[in-house]
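name: query_chain
kind: protein
chains: 1
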Amino acid sequence: MLNKSMRWRGLDPVTLEHCHIIPASSGTRIRGTVITPDYGLFYRLKLDEAGLVRSIRVERTDGAVLELFSNGAGSWSDDRAEPLPALNGCLDIDLWPTPLTNSLPIWRSTWIDNQPQRFAMAWIDGDDMTVRREEQLYTRLDPTHFRFQSNNGSFDRVLEVDSNGLVLNYPGLFERAD
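structure:
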């Protein structure tokens, strides 16, 4: 797995993110910081050896914290070990405001060009520190481009990724800054 740092510029709203992916014997650790016009946000992800999210901690500079745990098979709980049945079946997370989490399903899936794959995501909104289930569709167009669709197809972008599956350009929202 990668041992890499990268930065993204958010375009709408204007943000700056620094992220580091760290390989570990038991999977991968990802740490990132996002500076937005309204708050700073720090996130930590732990992935298991199969690339599945096992935990995420999101903390804002105003003190708001959200921490979630997964068994790697689609069951989630909060920081009090309370089950979150609304997230059943979600294997990945999608954290706003970062493009890093778009890489999670790209990394752990086998791709054939122009064959869409549907993913159930635990979608985390860093603006209001909430989480909900969201269905997303990814289609690899070629090794460096993925069509990303969410909100029942009402949101559609073609993401450009590097050879590691990390976003280079997310039209209208993010671009790599490193």
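note: The first helix runs from residue 103 to 108.
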